[in-house]
Amino acid sequence: MRGNTAKIAVCGVVSALSVVLMMFEGLVQVASIAIPAIAGCLLIPIVAEAGAGWALGSYGATATLCMFIAPDREAVLIYLLFFGYYPVLFAWLSKIKSPVLCWLAKLGVFNTAAALEAALTVYVLGIPWEDIPFLPMPWGLIALAVLANLVFVLYDKTLQGLIREYFRRLHGKLAGYFKN
To answer: What is the pTM of this model?
Structure first.
C-alpha cells in the first residue's frame, strides 16, 4: 500500500505544481512556450518511478485544471497538444532502435502538434494570422517551421539530459518510496 500512496501523493504534488506554473504564465506573458515545457518536464520523476500510466493521469489532471483556470489559452493549448504528454511519449519513442526512425517519429509528433496548435489558435481562439508577424508569407511560415523544429531538437536533447541527471542523482534515493 505504501507504493500506491506515494505514487498518488507525488502525482498530486506534480499536478498542483504544474497548474501553479501555468497560472504564473499569466504574469510572465513572454513565457507561453517555456512554462508549458517546464510543466511537462515535471513528469520525469513520475514516468521514471511510477510508470507511464500514472504520468498520463497526472497530465490529464493538470490539463483539465489548466483548461478551466489558467489565464493564457495559448499556453494551455501548447501544454495540452505537446509539452504535457511528451515526456511520457519520449520514453516510448526512445525505445525505437533505429535513430533515424526515432527522430522521424519525434519530429512527426512535434510537427503534427505544432500544426494543430497553430490551426486551433487561429480558428478556435480567434487570433488572426496577421497578429503573428514574422516574415512575409510564405517564407515567414517556412522559416518559423524550421526554427520551431530546431528548438524542438534542443528541447528533446535537454529533456534527455534532464532524464539522465534524474537517474544519476535522484532515482536511487527515491525508488524505495515507490515500491509496493
So the answer is: 0.86
